[in-house]
Amino acid sequence: MKRVTGIGGIFFKAKDAEAMRAWYKTHLGIDVQDWGGASFDWVGDDGKPAGGSTIWSVSAMESDNYAPSTAPFMINYRVADLDALLDALRAEGCNVIGNSEASEYGKFGWVLDPEGNKVELWQPPSGQ
C-alpha cells in the first residue's frame, strides 16, 4: 500500500496573521486570498497542469484548528487510500484522532506524531 504521495498543504499560526499574510504577498509574491491562504497548482516540466495543488495558509495564534496539538503548524499530506492508511496506522499503534471526514475537497483524517504534532492526511477527490 502506498502511504504519503505528496504534500497537500502547509498551515501555520502567526502572532499577527494579517501582517504575516501581507508580508508574504508583498515580498514573496504569494497570491494570498481572503480565506487566509493560497493554492499552488502543480505543473509539469512542460508548464502544463499536472493534476494537483498544495495549499499554504496562515491562521491566528488563537486558532484551534491544530488541536489537540499545541504546535503552531500542521502539514497536510496527500495520500492514495485514506481509509486503508488509517486502518494500518491504528494497527501499528499510532494515535489516530477521531473519524475521517469527507467533503467536496476529498477525505481527511488525522494522526498525532510521536511529539504530539497533528498530521492531516488528505485523499483528494478522484481525478485530482
From TrEMBL:
InterPro entries (UniProt xref): Anthracycline_SecMetBiosynth, Glyas_Bleomycin-R_OHBP_Dase, Glyoxalase_6, VOC_core
Descriptive protein name: Glyoxalase/Bleomycin resistance protein/Dioxygenase family protein
CDD domains: VOC
Signal peptide residue numbers: none
Domain VOC stretches: 6-124
GO molecular function, one term: dioxygenase activity
Keywords: Dioxygenase, Oxidoreductase
Superkingdom: Bacteria
